[in-house]
């Protein structure tokens, strides 16, 4: 049993105190304060340039999120080359998303338990090898399996990127800026995927949307070994991970999405669909029961008492569903209806990632004064408005009116929401739970994306088929289905506005100065933090 973080409780009846002893080169973190509120102390000098740590983590996160959407523009070429069915085409997207969503919690826990750099390098290696295998795939089955393994590698890698940042940057302005850069790459990575995918498919071949990860992955592995400092986990035995919890939550999510996709060929009342839905409910219910009783849960349920985590994850799910609706339906509309080449379709999506970057930079300069709640409310309203505007697409319509304008508005809204959402979810969370918190918010977004895409695609497909049966011309019928999918996505994103009102208010409070040096500002939350007993219960899950 290897410990790098110690946990100590305060006097009986008093607030708990947790002190994390970080390895050399990483910040030292303490949590103590009135009412049990967490505070993070000043960081010790790092032995690695922080810009290099930030660059490695952000580039790795960009690559992982990029691959969620990079295949969308290449889907028609994949279908032609491999003779894929319509259902198989959707599973190229969902295989990655499901593996990513179902195993993100496991990946976040593994980063905290086994060491963040070690898990980062392992996930990056697995992701790189799966990308190579996918590019070499000769059949629909091989490609889908490779995409699922890619999702597994991404699920291990993504939480490690955020937890490495949280252990490398002190809470306050320094960490806010780092999270802003990370949030910008996470948000723009998905949007840039369509652009990069279009360029690679048109200039080279669809296989290069997967091959492109190989040289980047190899370079990042080499850089990680030089730049990143290991922060050791508390345990190093596989049995200390919650394998039953991992299997039940992943199995439940797969069954849920598969049941929704199955409704394309079977009715909602068919025995097969009902059986899968019941199985999904049973597995997800078993997951909650396991987490409540196991000694080392995948998700300590007490973590949801930290203000902002639960609400931010709901917002993340809504954002994921809306963003994937754009990636999937707009790229198909531009190529199948407007007859754009993959390159032109990808470049047509460029306003969205550019506005995400602009918005994220603006948010990092204002979130310290305003807090995440009002920014998320504005971002969700703007993003939903852009999506609803985009749903007015028509065959032969003006690009500037029907695509460029909506994408710019939507990108700005999504960028502001993404950065603020990460800040709201991680505010006040102890460093020992950094991987878990980052895994949760990534999971929320990917679950929303997987379930949302399956449901909205099914509805849009049924609508298109109905229009075709009534004699509507194919371009108009396809456009009608894509428009409906985008409209539903806009309505889903709009739900983020009332949900954001549930976030606690955050205010800036100065910390006591130590040794004549002013400490960074502390984020104080106007809501109850976990009581001492709950704090110790959560902390116990990180120990053997």
Topology:
Layout: E1 6-8, E2 17-20, E3 29-31, H1 50-69, H2 75-82, H3 86-114, H4 116-135, H5 140-168, H6 173-203, H7 208-211, H8 213-227, H9 243-262, H10 271-293, H11 309-337, H12 342-348, H13 351-370, H14 372-390, H15 399-426, H16 434-469, H17 474-494, H18 496-500, E4 506-509, E5 522-525, H19 532-540
Antiparallel strand pairs: 1-2, 2-3, 4-5
Helix pairs in contact: 1-5, 1-6, 1-8, 3-4, 3-5, 3-9, 3-16, 4-5, 4-8, 5-6, 5-16, 6-12, 6-13, 6-15, 9-10, 9-16, 11-15, 11-16, 11-17, 13-14, 13-15, 14-15, 14-17, 16-17
Could you please describe the fold and organization of this structure?
The chain is mainly alpha-helical. The protein has helices spanning 50-69, 75-82, 86-114, 116-135, 140-168, 173-203, 208-211, 213-227, 243-262, 271-293, 309-337, 342-348, 351-370, 372-390, 399-426, 434-469, 474-494, 496-500, 532-540, and strands spanning 6-8, 17-20, 29-31, 506-509, 522-525. Strands 1-2-3 form a three-stranded antiparallel beta sheet, with helices on one face. Strands 4-5 form a two-stranded antiparallel sheet. A hairpin with an 8-residue loop joins strand 2 (17-20) and strand 3 (29-31).
Please give a quick description of this structure.
By secondary structure, the chain is mostly helical. It is built from 19 helices and five strands. It is globular and about 60 Å long.
Keywords:
69% helix; mainly alpha; disordered C terminus; 544 residues
Distance between the termini: 7 Å
For the sheet with most strands, the description reads:
3 strands, antiparallel
Determine Rg (CA atoms, Å).
Answer: 23 Å
Q: Please estimate the helix content.
A: 55-70%
| Main sheet: strand order | 1-2-3
- Secondary-structure element pattern, one letter each: EEEHHHHHHHHHHHHHHHHHHEEH
Strand fraction = under 5%
Helix/strand-derived category reads mainly alpha
Number of helical segments with 4 or more residues? 19
Q: Which term fits the overall shape?
A: globular
Q: Residue-averaged pLDDT, rounded?
A: 80
Q: How many strand units?
A: 5
Give the low-pLDDT segments: 1-46, 508-544
